[in-house]
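Researcher: Let's try something more involved. This one mixes different molecule types, so please make sure each is placed in the same coordinate frame as the others.
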Amino acid sequence: MKKYLLSLFLLVSLQSLAQEVGLRPRRKWFLPDHLKLQFAGNIGFVSGGPGYVSRNQTLETDLLFGFLPQKFGGDALVTTTLKTTYSPWRIGLRDNYYIRPFSIGAYLSYTFGPQFDTKWPSYYPAGYYWWATAIRPGAYIGGKAGRNVVLNNRRRSLELYYELGTYDLLIISYIQNKSFLKINDIVSLSLGVKFAFN
Amino acid sequence: MKHILPWTALGLVLLLSSCDNLFQYNPNEETLLESERNLTAKNIDKISQLPVSDTTRFILMGDSQRWYDECEDFVQSANQQKGISFVLHAGDISDFGLTQEFKWVNEIMTCLKYPYVTVIGNHDIVANGSATYRKMFGPLNYSFAFGRDRFIFINTNSREYAFDGSVPDIAWLKAQLADNPTHKNTIVVGHVPPFDADFDKNLEKSYTEALATDPSVKFTLYGHQHRFYEGQFYDDGVNYHLTTSMGARGYMVVSTWEGGYNVKRVEF
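Model: All components are placed in one shared frame. Result:
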């Protein structure tokens, strides 16, 4: 394993010798612009995966694979999530630090398991239950702070983000029960890191 | 770095203000506090310590699914009733089968002055619902006795099991009915009544006959149809009573005594 990592490291550094800082590396279009690792947020205990960013860096779309171990969730659950985040403002700070004070986004998650359905079985009359148990749409607001760095002569950035989110079934519950439910009953926090290759 | 601090602070404030369920990992997670586990056994234990009088009075309510505000009003109304020993929830505790919903309803129901026990509803079986029900309440079929009465709670949500013949468990029901050495008055409680389309048509006859052939069964209790409804639908001496939903703001007060019983509808 150590040997393998070492040769990989050498390969990466050799490649980077050939590139100049400041040039956008010629990356294949299909290679992801960043990787994310997220904690909580109703898409797994931890979730992670690749993502793409728009040219002006405000719109990110990620494909995350999440896992919730039984120890933390009472049931082991695997989830895939497609999420899009819009962070319109960037405030540059000293030492290559920056913040994106506001983000807003939405996601669609799919949880695997025989007990979850996308389409209800035929023994239910049409519309018996109106929601799909496997698919959950959700939305969130948040913010992030990051820093541009140079690693091996390549421009990289590292961001930390937080999101306060909820999902369809909780929103409906809240709208119909504004006396019993408070907004914080349906909102939960997630934290994440993003490593960008741009 | 200095500028990041205010934002971190803001994040922390928001974070602390929603401390209850700060982090959620999946809508279908089954995370419960110790105080939210084995509620059936815990509440039966509480009921068994209550004094028994000539008349036993209890409340039948049900279908609290996504009607939390109304359910809170129910608790307020129920707490003003006189001489109540306990509350029976006729099922559909949750709407989406989410653990969070079960927890919210339990939070409301623990404001009752009385212990409560439940029977599982079809909505409580959706997704991870039945797994959560087992952890939070206990077995899907169970029974207990109080005073001269014996309560049998049975899962009657056949459609959730694709009408495979396993639900309701007729063999279990018959065994429970037979196990009545002191000839207690037997009250069978289910969510879906046997004449409903969600009840297995192939089991309807054996179910209703099992009740009718037992002389200790005078009446039986259900929810599901979101309306008050009652009658001797099978002309076999057994009275069927359905309570309405929390959304329809109603419940029933049931009184039983030696040789008789009475059902009173309450709207709140």
